[in-house]
Please model this.
Amino acid sequence: MSFRSAEDAGLVSAFLDGDRRAFEELMLAHEDRVFAVCLRILTNREAALDAVQETFITVYRKARQFSGASAFSTWLYRIAVNTCYDQLRRDKRHQAQALPETNDPADERSEDLLGSVELRPDLERALAGLAPEFRAAVVLSDLEGLPLQAIAEALEVPIGTVKSRVFRGRRLLAEHLRNLSGSSAHQRGEHDA
Amino acid sequence: MMHDHDFELIAAIAEGDLDPEEQAAAEDLLTSCPVCSTDLQLQLEALAFLRTAPPVMMTHLERASLHRSVTENLAPAARSVPSQARVPWFQRLLPAMAAAAALVAVVGVGSMLINGSGDADTAAGTTAAATAGGGQPVEEELAQDSSAAEGVAEPTTTMALAAPNNSNIREYGAISAAELADIASQLTTFPETDDPGDYSRESLQSLSFGPALVCTDAAFDEGSISAIGRATVDGDDVEIYRIDEKVNVYSSADCSLLHRFD
Model:
């Protein structure tokens, strides 16, 4: 068990014993990575923050269901990913916006108001072009660096399925990037002409 | 193109998980399989692209709003009141944005008055409109935060309510030095802590959520603290304390006193 996992287990135990600060420490320790996962799956800043909020509320309310069989972070990612899936299902508009025709910045309003760090626009568009199950696998594997076993537990699928999703997700992403690149070159050519 | 039969091998090559001998053998094999070779190229392109992805992070404002929203949404459950609708984070942001808009209006109108254009009625109207447009005043919201935190008692609570959390440290974000005086004049006593004695050294040192305050000792040496803010002034992080009747601004780097507003 890693130091982080051991510390998380201790904090969960303390929280269940009534120490609310332990929950706050857990949240502080993990909120950035949960936000990163949610933003990359949802490719929308507002939606990601809502998902992070809902994830930690779920953790607070269901902490007793954490068995300790896997790392707390794995359990947390499972909740976060499921929350994101739920949000994608609820928000059909997101799918309609998944592949914008133009190269407009992702969310100028957020950027202006908050001075925030956005996903790179090409990454956002490329991720948005993947089906959610491939997107989640690629995000957890290649952007968050989780081991396959942890991803399998977080996504509640066999390791073989994770490998397949990561592989196919990368392939689709690369093909999509090639298309985007070709499209941009075509647009530049039209513009120059 | 759904040629997946060697995908584990191709992925392992792309990730560099094979030792040199295995890698060489695998690459020889790939030369006899054009589809596999194309797949490897796509894997490499995707990985190269993903590995250059910049980290993403929340802004201070987003983080503070998230903490406040989580606290507020948990309070009803802890009181065993039927759950209320979740408050989207951006709605939680509106009062802060309104306060920022009001500040801009005040500063803008103030400079208009200094320059001899505009009038007081316009200033009052603009400020009122900005505040009304964003909903409740920040003080009122923070008072609600405190009362909400009071009810958080699940599984069993020992949370010290007198201890301020970052919900009642005002986060001003990036501001200019010129705005600092206005910020200081607005940094008034929080409703829940109008007894200055509520802010004890212990409570401030045990803050949860967000970076810890570092200049509380310097501030306490000056008197009783009744309100706290944090900002980045022209790129430098500062802590702002209302201490008795004055407001001190300390550098977060070394707690040197940068400004005093009486």
